[in-house]
Amino acid sequence: MSIVKSISVGNGDMFYIKHGNDNFTIIDCNLIQEHRTVIINELIKESNGKNITRFISTSPDMDHIRGLKELDEKMGIRNFYVVKNNAAKNNLNEDFQKYCELRDDSKKSFYISKGVTRKWMNESDVTRGSSGINILWPILSNDFFKAALENAEKGNSPNNISPIIRYSLEKGPSVIWMGDLETPFMDSITLDI
Fold first, then answer.
1. Band of pLDDT at residue 151, cut at 50, 70 and 90
2. The pLDDT of residue 33 is above 90
3. What is the pTM of this model?
4. CA 138, CA 84: separation in Å to the nearest integer?
5. pLDDT given for residue 90 in this prediction
6. Going by DSSP bridges, is the β-strand pair 174-177/164-168 parallel, antiparallel, or unpaired?
7. CA atoms of 71 and 83, how far apart (whole Å)
């Protein structure tokens, strides 16, 4: 049995999936100082015994990456799933710097886009099953997405480079994450999804 948990982190996002197999997935982090240690300890405890741990980043804004540096120090992020981007910020805090480091590390980063496949994320093999995670967006050739990438690279809002992620199990629930995609942008891409 899998467990999907939304962690209460105030105005921001953080979830984890404790898969029924040996996968563990963290989606975003907004580790506010007063609860940081408790949440990190829970993630360490719940991921104990899992051979595959992945972190999926939906946005490089602080409400999605706050505490990323400390999370990496305590857990050691080895699988960082992110939309390929060169988002820039005027305020280079340590968590955004860690995001950039993980995003650009060819041994840790895995770039996600619509239809991408990866062992144990959405493909099974004889050693372990799929985690049931599929990427529905972005479509890299989409002009609206290309414009959003350029906008984020100039230091503007990275909201519209967020992926759309679906987690679903056969005969079970389906959960979708959309990062911070803005409504007018979503209206522009609805038919593509």
1. very high
2. no
3. 0.94
4. 10
5. 86
6. antiparallel
7. 20
User: 30-62 burial, b if ≥16 CB within 10 A, otherwise e?
Assistant: bbbeebbeebbeebeebbeeeebbbbbbbbbbb
Distance in angstroms (rounded) separating the CA atoms of residues 56 and 110: 9
Where is 109: in which H helix or E strand?
strand 109-111
Rounded to whole angstroms, what are the CA distances from 167 to 18, 38, 121? 12, 26, 10
Q: What is the pLDDT of residue 144?
A: 97
Q: Answer yes or no: are the C-beta atoms of 109 and 102 closer than 8 Å.
A: yes
Stretch (H or E) spanning 100: helix 94-104
Q: Kind of pairing, strands 133-137 and 109-111?
A: unpaired
Q: How far is residue 99's CA from residue 55's CA, in Å, rounded to a whole number?
A: 11
In this predicted structure, what is the pLDDT of residue 132? Answer: 87
Neighbours of 179 (CB within 10 A): 24
Strand partners, 135: 165
Residue 77, burial from CB neighbour count under 10 angstroms (0-12, 13-18, 19+): buried
138 preceded by a cis bond (ω within 30 of 0): yes
Distance CA 54, CA 77 (A): 7
Q: State CA 190 to chain mean position distance.
A: 21
